[in-house]
Design goal:
It contains eleven helices and 23 strands. With 480 residues, it is α+β, with helices and mostly antiparallel strands. Strand 17 (345-353) and strand 18 form a beta hairpin. The radius of gyration is 51 Å and the shape is elongated. The N and C termini lie far apart (153 Å).
């Protein structure tokens, strides 16, 4: 092609370009899908899919940062997950862990060991231990067995708690490898002085027992302290009060003993009667608040609550049928009823004397003697032995000339028979000097404690108990 032809073609192309530039541009139309994608379309689809997956993974991690402050807070749900239990070693393998089992009817020691997971070889050693082997035969329902089971799954010790067949002291065995040895159980003993107070109610005996008093303390109240001031059959009403001071002994947290009554008061018809224990010349006695002894030289009735069946004087003898002098008094009582010494004295005779049967004679000094006849048996007495008032010297019977079980009681002065019911002997001397000072200090503390407890229990106002201090001194102390 010549140069002139080239110029003509160039001019034609330029002219067509100018014409096309002046025309409106039409939107291009995509080519219709003809049944399959091209390679370019597959490449675009792969890129778009990858971007979508990446966005789905990344965007939720930024959701909390993108949430606006005003958007509602998300709600959380707490789910309970089961966690593995701590091993015994993690708890505390060296600590003591005592577990107590109370034997049920039909339950055996073998079943207890099996229940607690204690190896059988440990049971065999226990069964063969010489100290505990005889005791195991005495196990009964209600017996308490304690085991020291540390957290490491072993058994460290076994203890038989006090109870019937076991005794008052626990028995403890310690497991140490293949050895089994007895171990001394530490005993904690404490003594407390307490005030027990209550109302007489329908029965003084029942009310006193409910407070924790035993027969010994109740007998001290009725037979030694208030025997001559209160008729316990007729004087007391349900609303009358009584308070008792005693020492209680506790062993390992359990009450094991209650001592004699140290002080007591009865409020009868608004009037207070009091009595206090004090040791004079080595012997305990009971005194009034001003130091007068409540003890009588002789007991008129050597048998408590007995029935008088025959008095002193002439009568027809119930066995011989003849009229003769009855030189004593008779008290009917059930066979075996204890007979007490009427007063302090020395045993002058123990044995059998004709129609008297089994007899005890006591010498009280100053020419005074007492005779006790028709006994079924004697207490442990020997001639020359000293006895105190109230000591049991024998038991009611019907030996000798007797129609039935009773006590024949005689009182003699220089060999002359006297009527025991009419004897009036001077009472023991009251306290004086240093004894009286010491007694006043003790009784004042006891009365203050009784007063304090009664005020709390009965919500009283003012003094409600007798005072060992004279009235003028008490009133001056209150003013101060």
């Amino acid at each position: 092609m010549t140069e002139s032809n080239h110029d003509a073609v160039r001019r034609g192309n330029l002219e067509r370009a100018r014409v096309n530039a002046d025309r409106p541009v039409k939107a291009s139309t995509s080519h219709p899908f003809k049944g399959r994608w091209s390679r370019r379309q597959w490449a675009h689809a792969s890129v778009l899919t990858t971007m979508a997956v990446l966005l789905a993974s990344i965007v939720p991690g930024f959701s909390n940062l993108l949430t606006s402050p005003t958007a509602p807070r998300a709600q959380w749900t707490t789910m309970q997950l089961s966690l593995p239990k701590l091993s015994r070693a993690q708890i505390s393998p060296t600590d003591d862990h005592w577990q107590t089992v109370t034997l049920k009817p039909g339950q055996t020691l073998s079943s207890v060991f099996e229940e607690l997971g204690i190896p059988y070889d440990q049971l065999e050693r226990v069964m063969q231990h010489p100290k505990i082997k005889p005791t195991l035969r005495k196990l009964r329902p209600g017996t308490q067995l304690s085991f020291n089971l540390p957290a490491d799954g072993s058994v460290r010790a076994m203890r038989l708690e006090p109870g019937p067949g076991i005794g008052d002291t626990p028995i403890e065995l310690e497991f140490d490898g293949d050895a089994l040895r007895e171990r001394a159980v530490p005993v904690e003993i404490t003594t407390r002085t307490v005030v027990l107070t209550g109302e007489v109610g329908k029965s003084l005996f029942a009310s006193a027992r409910k407070l924790g008093l035993g027969s010994a303390q109740i007998n001290q109240l009725t037979d030694e302290m208030f025997k001559y001031d209160i008729d316990f059959d007729s004087d007391l009403s349900e609303n009358d009060r009584f308070s008792v001071v005693v020492d209680q002994t506790w062993k390992n947290g359990q009450l094991v003993h209650t001592g004699p009554v140290l002080a007591a008061t009865f409020t009868v018809d608004g009037k207070v009667k009091s009595a206090f224990r004090f040791v004079r010349d080595g012997k305990p006695e009971y005194f009034t608040a001003d130091g007068r002894s409540l003890r009588r030289p002789f007991i008129r009735m050597p048998i408590p609550y007995a029935r008088l069946t025959s008095g002193f004087g002439g009568r027809n003898h119930p066995v011989l049928g003849t009229f003769r002098m009855h030189k004593g008094v008779d008290y009917a009582a059930a066979p075996g009823t204890p007979i007490q010494a009427a007063g302090d004295g020395r045993v002058a005779f123990v044995g059998r004397q004709g129609g008297y049967g089994n007899v005890v004679i006591l010498d009280h000094g100053g020419g005074k003697t007492t005779l006790y006849a028709h006994m079924s048996r004697f207490a442990k007495l020997r001639v020359g032995q000293r006895v105190t008032q109230g000591t049991v010297i024998g038991y009611v019977g019907s030996t000798g000339l007797a129609t039935g079980p009773h006590l024949h009681y005689e009182f003699r002065v220089n060999g002359v028979h006297m009527n025991p019911l009419k004897m009036t002997l001077p009472p023991p001397a009251p306290l004086s000097g240093a004894d009286l000072v010491a007694f006043k200090n003790e009784t004042r503390r006891a009365l203050d404690k009784i007063h304090e407890v009664e005020d709390v229990v009965f919500q009283l106002d003012g003094d409600r108990v007798a005072s060992a201090t004279p009235k003028h001194a008490a009133s001056s102390r209150k003013k101060g």
